[in-house]
Q: What sequence folds into this?
């Protein structure tokens, strides 16, 4: 994961991102995605400037940011885990996987591990229903995840301080190594 920007650098980047998106309201979502990609999260303090730029109320921008689970209001953890909580995954062991993750990390969904290094969030379908249960670790999708694979993935990501291994062009099924 990239190093966090200083507040001043984040302000500069945010202004540049907004400048690249004209004030049309259909540009709001692309701008929010670009902001989060560039800065890592969209702090509540940025909402007034975003609202002004798109001629919207603060409540409208806040509503969009909170409607989509993708958007974060605070700096992301070093490792970001999401577990699929939709039907196909739940029928294939996602509840057991969630219980294991909660025990391992010592936190509930929407929480963080005690040292703050790992966040745990729900997601609703990752397009891997035929290979459930699925999860993401940072920006990589993993399918057929067992508790043991969960542990291996997480250990790899934390040890290496880099994203877990993935296979180009599709989700990792983690055959042998990790
Ligand atoms: S239900 Fe989990 S990937 Fe579709």
A:
């Amino acid at each position: 994961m990239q190093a966090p920007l200083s507040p001043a650098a984040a302000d500069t980047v945010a202004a540049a991102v907004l400048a690249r998106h004209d004030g049309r309201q259909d540009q709001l979502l692309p701008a929010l995605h670009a902001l989060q990609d560039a800065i890592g999260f969209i702090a509540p303090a940025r909402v007034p400037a975003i609202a002004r730029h798109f001629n919207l109320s603060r409540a409208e921008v806040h509503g969009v940011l909170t409607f989509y689970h993708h958007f974060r209001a605070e700096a992301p953890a070093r490792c970001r885990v999401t577990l699929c909580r939709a039907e196909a995954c739940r029928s294939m062991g996602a509840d057991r996987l969630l219980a294991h993750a909660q025990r391992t990390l010592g936190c509930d969904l929407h929480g963080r591990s005690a040292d703050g290094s790992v966040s745990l969030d729900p997601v609703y379908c990752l397009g891997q229903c035929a290979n459930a249960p699925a999860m993401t670790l940072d920006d990589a999708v993993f399918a057929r995840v067992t508790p043991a694979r969960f542990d291996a993935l997480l250990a790899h990501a934390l040890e290496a301080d880099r994203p877990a291994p993935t296979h180009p062009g599709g989700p990792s099924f983690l055959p042998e190594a990790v």
